[in-house]
Specification:
- The chain has 13 helices and no strands.
- The chain is an all-alpha fold.
- The protein folds into 2 domains: 121 residues, no CATH class; 187 residues, no CATH class.
- The protein is rod-shaped, with a radius of gyration of 53 Å.
């Protein structure tokens, strides 16, 4: 660039005669001298400084706008940014089109299909459990199991009370009276807490043995049959002991009130007694039936549970699809927002490209001018606050005058 030329206006100076090209240092000195001269002419006032800056700007702009090579160089980053934004817009629009026309419809179709599959499972649960009577069987078995459990509780609580604590009389030597004592719990409560706890908990011993047999069936190998046989044997022995104790008490009452000499009660006599086997069948056989029903109920419940698991899996898949649908919808909103931003940037860039761009060199010229202006102000004894005001005014002018391109969005 050459020496500053101001040919019109209030601050016009005479154009020097043609001279050989000026070196950069000489050009800087020219702007500094011009700033010093104008500060002297205008008394270093801030309004005068702003007028001079505007004059510098318009003169610089007049010189630079006809430099087509320079303007093209300055506008090249802007043109590249415009093309980048256009590329981003095309890419986002293609993604949005694919999401709206392919991905989202496919997810909605899958959600609808999963809902139809749920309805089909509810109407046809046998396809999942392989049994048409799964739910009715469970409810019937559960009802039977409840009543069998009540029976076993009453039987074993009464039988244990009769075997361990009850004193028989002649009118209580029948099997029914000796086993099913309607007042067993109330009598045990009167006798003491220990007796009450014993007759209330003994039924759970047998129920616990039945549950263990069920769990043993889940094992694999030959050992499970051995363990199950041992548990059944233990239960039978326990029942046999209760039956023996009750039968012995009944036998002894008869013996004490019989004029014929009866032998002492023994295992062989118990084995020949109908009462002995009746007590065992009333407890042990019902206990075995309870175990079979218990297995059956759990199996039926497992079949029903398969339906619940299948329905929960469908619900999980539907939830995952809905989350994915929301994510894609959010992606569309985000890309649409980015498209709007890019279009705004393109508009700003096009406005810049259609105007004259002021290069960064102008900033240096302005600061050289300011250096001369401030030199005069310091030499004239201006206060520090006015010097700061002048620097601020120049900085604000530079920020506005030199256009900064909006940067290309590289997302």
């Amino acid at each position: 660039m050459g020496i500053l030329k101001i040919t019109k206006g209030l601050f016009a100076v005479n154009e020097p005669p043609p001279a050989p090209p000026v070196k950069k240092e000489e050009e800087k000195i020219s702007y500094q001298e011009y700033g010093h001269h104008q500060a002297y002419a205008l008394g270093g006032s801030i309004p005068g400084l702003r007028v001079c800056l505007q004059k510098l700007y318009f003169n610089f702009k007049e010189r630079i706008k006809d430099d087509h090579d320079k303007q093209e160089e300055l506008k090249r980053p802007g043109r590249i940014a415009v093309e980048e934004h256009k590329g981003h817009i095309d890419r986002w629009e293609n993604k949005i089109k694919k999401l709206r026309e392919e991905d989202i419809p496919a997810i909605k179709q899958r959600i609808e299909m999963l809902r139809e599959e749920k309805a089909h499972i509810r109407k046809n649960p046998q396809e999942v459990i392989g049994d048409l009577t799964g739910k009715p069987s469970f409810y019937i078995g559960a009802i039977i199991l409840v009543f069998l459990t009540l029976y076993l509780f009453v039987f074993y609580s009464s039988a244990s009370y009769s075997a361990f604590f009850k004193e028989f009389s002649l009118n209580e030597i029948g099997v029914a009276n000796s086993i099913f004592d309607a007042q067993a719990i109330s009598k045990a409560m009167k006798d003491g807490v220990t007796e009450l706890v014993l007759i209330l908990t003994i039924p759970f011993v047998f129920l616990g043995l039945g549950y263990l047999i069920h769990k043993m069936q889940e094992l694999k190998g030959l050992m499970k049959f051995i363990k199950i046989a041992l548990l059944v044997l233990v239960t039978f022995i326990f029942d046999a002991i209760l039956a023996y104790e009750i039968t012995e008490k009944i036998y002894n009452i008869k013996r004490e009130n019989n004029f014929n000499d009866l032998p002492d009660f023994s295992i062989s006599i118990a084995m020949k007694s109908v009462n002995f086997w009746l007590i065992i069948f009333s407890g042990f056989i019902v206990y075995l039936i309870w175990g079979f029903v218990f297995d059956f109920v759990l199996e039926a419940f497992g079949k029903i549970d398969k339906v619940k698991v299948a329905l929960k899996e469908k619900d999980r898949q539907i939830d995952d699809s809905l989350k994915r649908l929301n994510e894609l919808t959010q992606d569309i909103d985000n890309m649409s927002h980015q498209i709007d931003i890019s279009k705004t940037q393109i508009k700003k860039l096009n406005e810049t490209l259609n105007s004259t761009i002021i290069p960064r060199e102008f900033e240096q010229d302005v600061f050289n001018f300011m250096a001369g202006w401030l030199a005069w102000m310091k030499g004239s004894g201006k206060p520090h606050t006015e010097l700061e005001s002048a620097e601020t005014a120049v900085q604000e002018f530079v920020n506005v005058a030199i256009y900064n391109y909006p940067k290309a969005n590289t997302q």
